[in-house]
Write a structure and sequence with these properties.
With 79 residues, this protein is an all-alpha fold. It is 59% helix and 0% strand. It has one helix spanning 2-48. It is elongated.
Amino acid sequence: MQLIRTILIIVAVYYGAKFLMRILGPILMKYAANKMEQKVKEQFGKHQAPQEKETPKEPIHKMKSTKKVGEYIDFEEIE
């Protein structure tokens, strides 16, 4: 009788833990992800702060380049 009772307790604990993890798992993962995101933002902010002064005010694609890189050559495939 003790063996059956022990097996039933083990099975009940297993399914109880499985059920709780199904409910609490996403909440714990979201909490952990938010904490990691906060840490990354803090570390990135420390390294990023001095560089903000050096960034150009215009986007890179709007800056005009005066130097000519080369001439355009159109290649055709030969079969």
